[in-house]
From TrEMBL:
<dbReference type="Pfam" id="PF00196">
    <property type="entry name" value="GerE"/>
</dbReference>
<keyword id="KW-0805">Transcription regulation</keyword>
<dbReference type="InterPro" id="IPR011006">
    <property type="entry name" value="CheY-like_superfamily"/>
</dbReference>
<keyword id="KW-0597">Phosphoprotein</keyword>
<dbReference type="InterPro" id="IPR000792">
    <property type="entry name" value="Tscrpt_reg_LuxR_C"/>
</dbReference>
<dbReference type="InterPro" id="IPR001789">
    <property type="entry name" value="Sig_transdc_resp-reg_receiver"/>
</dbReference>
<feature type="modified residue" description="4-aspartylphosphate">
    <location>
        <position position="54"/>
    </location>
</feature>
<dbReference type="GO" id="GO:0003677">
    <property type="term" value="F:DNA binding"/>
</dbReference>
<keyword id="KW-0804">Transcription</keyword>
<dbReference type="InterPro" id="IPR016032">
    <property type="entry name" value="Sig_transdc_resp-reg_C-effctor"/>
</dbReference>
<dbReference type="InterPro" id="IPR058245">
    <property type="entry name" value="NreC/VraR/RcsB-like_REC"/>
</dbReference>
<dbReference type="GO" id="GO:0000160">
    <property type="term" value="P:phosphorelay signal transduction system"/>
</dbReference>
<dbReference type="InterPro" id="IPR039420">
    <property type="entry name" value="WalR-like"/>
</dbReference>
<feature type="domain" description="HTH luxR-type">
    <location>
        <begin position="148"/>
        <end position="213"/>
    </location>
</feature>
<dbReference type="GO" id="GO:0006355">
    <property type="term" value="P:regulation of DNA-templated transcription"/>
</dbReference>
<protein>
    <submittedName>
        <fullName>DNA-binding NarL/FixJ family response regulator</fullName>
    </submittedName>
</protein>
<keyword id="KW-0238">DNA-binding</keyword>
Length: 219
């Protein structure tokens, strides 16, 4: 069962998200919050698998809440919920340790897909957000590519194999199937990769894999 916390200052958005998530028998909403501070408190209490946070809330916003949640409850993955025109927050959100980015105007099925992907240990970006991230990566690609290749050179051959599949969007279970490894072993490799690369989440590791040429564009 995937346990989810939903945080948004608009009751209608919270109710809509809860209804969509409730349509999947393997997902349960364990708590709802109206602001970032409440989201942090409820995450400490319930320790959900996924925290779905509105990026803009009164008081403590979703970005600040994400940073605190990832610091205090690292086992909880964070998915940001945003609207069109707020893609400029993507880079800061990724730096805060966010594993997913969804648009409120997306198809409801995308919410289910994103939550399930992040809960499985993968990363998920809505297509429009993914295009923004790739655009950010593309600017200054040559210089960053050299740096990225130097950083990835520090990894073992097995870690590079895991990183390549992680960069292609596979979950820990899918990587394990490809490499004939137990899911727990893959999780250990991913943790080691993040530590050695000095990044906070899978999305940043995937970007490094892309910048270094380990993963081809569109993989």
């Amino acid at each position: 069962m995937i346990r989810v916390l939903v945080a948004d200052d608009e009751p209608m958005i919270r109710s809509g998200a809860r209804a969509i998530l409730a349509s999947d028998p393997e997902i349960v909403v364990v708590a709802e919050a109206a602001n970032g501070g409440e989201a942090i408190q409820l995450t400490r209490r319930y320790r959900p698998d996924v925290a779905l946070l509105d990026i803009r809330m009164p008081g403590l916003d979703g970005l600040a809440a994400a940073e605190e949640i990832r610091r205090e409850v690292p086992e909880t993955s964070v998915v940001m919920l945003t609207t069109f025109g707020e893609e400029e927050y993507v880079v800061r959100a990724l730096a805060a340790g966010t594993s997913g980015f969804l648009l409120k105007a997306s198809d409801p099925r995308e919410l289910l897909t994103g939550v399930r992907a992040v809960a499985a240990g993968a990363a998920y970006l809505a297509p429009r957000v993914a295009r923004r991230v790739l655009a950010e990566v593309g600017a200054g690609q040559l210089a960053r590519g050299i740096t990225a290749r130097e950083r990835i050179a520090m990894l073992t051959e097995r870690e590079r194999e895991v990183l390549a599949l992680l960069g292609a969007g596979l979950s820990n279970g899918e990587i394990g199937q490809r490499l004939f490894l137990a899911e727990g072993t893959v999780k250990s490799h991913v943790s080691a990769i993040l530590t050695r690369l000095g990044v906070r989440n899978r999305v940043r590791a995937a970007i490094l894999a892309y910048e270094s040429g380990l993963v081809a564009p569109g993989a």
